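In response to a reviewer's request, we include the raw inputs and outputs for one of the modeled complexes. The two entities were modeled together in a single run.
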Amino acid sequence: MAKEVGADRLGDFYKEGSLVRKRREWRGLADTMYDYSRWLKIMMTLGKFVMKPRNVKAMFRYRWMANYLAVPMMVDRHTQGLRGEYLRICHEEQDLVIDDVAKLLDSLFRGDRRIGNDKKFSDKVVLVDENEMTAVMMGFPTLKCLSRETPSTYVSVLLNQYAACHYIDVAQEFGLAGDVCPMPEAEAGVSIDDDAPVLGACAIQCNTTCDGSLLGNGVISQRLEKEDGIPVFQLAAPLRHREDDVQEYAAQEIRNAIAFIEKHTGVKWDWKAYFECAKRVNYATECRQEWLEMNRTPYPQVFGSNLALYTETNYMAICGRVAAFEKADRKITKLARQAYAKKKMAAKEYRHRAIVWGVQSHYYMDFLVWLLNCWGIVPLTDMLSMVSTKKLVTEDTPENREQAIYDMAWLTENMIMRNRTHGGYKVLLDELWEFVEMFNADMVILWEHMSCKALDGMHGLFEEKAREKGIPLVWVSHDLFDPRIISRQGVRDQINSFMHTVFNEEPIDPSLEVLPDEKSW
Amino acid sequence: MSLFLNIIKVVAIVIVALFALTFTVYFFNLDMKLTAAIYPWLNKQYDKVKRDQHL
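The model returned the following structure tokens for the whole complex.
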């Protein structure tokens, strides 16, 4: 039990064969009391959630709801070893995301025909994909933009590494291909398994990133439209998003999506609300850019999962629509500036500065914290955090209204992952090496999501360029949502052997090298 | 005055007892240990739910 950063053997908290860890960390009096107070707050959020009978009913109806028992443990995994400002930044983000997901679940069950069956509420709901930019909802403040896939699969796998396995198996039992991305496959599996809440006036699906995503959407929309009577709009954003000649088409798709929502909800687009959201999007961009600027220096502050998870939520799922995230942006920036001014470090030793590229293993999101604690590798930024930095127009004028349509189209084309896995050679390959130089990185960690065909095809090109630049590159294979293919230890082993053989180094915390977390949530 | 002091004493004891209890739960991860025990039971419950499984 130690106050100092890096003085604990963090691997000793794990117990062979157990779902959970032995105990929580002692981080010194001030930080332990802070962590305890945030744990109390999370327990209150969860307590408030289960006070409603409809939420308890949903807990016994939907298989994926069991994963929400593991909420406090998810926070513990991401705060491992953290002290001071880093601990506070992590809690600011995680606690807000938990609160937001609790509200999302509550709204889903309120409108769900099986649970709350509030028809009036359901008529104000527009369903969206999990992996979809919610920009088209920025001008509909009176409507509820809800994603069923976010709580059933995306968040579930963050909570429990095996959360999606049942749904992947169901999808494959019904003949769906086993070699597509397990994320959309699991989402399709939830629909096939009759385990998705049924609600909404209409739905907007997006041609997100890949073949698997299109497959999943096809299965889900068939059930929504033909059985549940919920009309679905297919927002087909261009894949060559850096090309000027596709922008008019992209803008027209946004106009069509807005017209579709207006038609099915009877609610008109509100420009005032849109420009308010646009201001918040710009503020979030400013903050993210400031954090990334700090990460270029020897004293990075908001990095690893603190950067990755929050950016995914704030950029895509929130998209300026929730004022609480602006407040969190401000707090995080304040904490980061404070730590930067004092030249603070999140671990006792920084040995390597890494750019993490590719699509990360979702069942092991806290891998980024592990890199830092075990090997002193600072994950300065990752592919999914390197999103659009374009400023949106914020003044309500006739010209800006037209420009705003193009801004929403740009955001939709540049949603997380898609902005790099599609759009050509430059956005995926060339810009990685520009970031390596910009961030003064000395290694690249390249996720190889084995079912992601968009990335796998570039394997050789990445290696060729790494050799040319003289930058050590390590591949880390995984199967995104399915730890049965490559376990968390399998992920760690790839880094462990690289660090031992290529860098000839020993871990900072040897207790973390091999962890008995195969059965863990 | 003595009644007032007694009230303060009772409130203080309740606060300290609540803190001791919740901090023990927090530190020894008892909340997660309890939910880990519930989890397998919940999974059995889901297997009993009638579903209209199809493509």
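As requested, we also summarize the result in words. The radius of gyration of chain B is 22 Å. Chain B touches chain A through 23 residues (CB under 8 Å).
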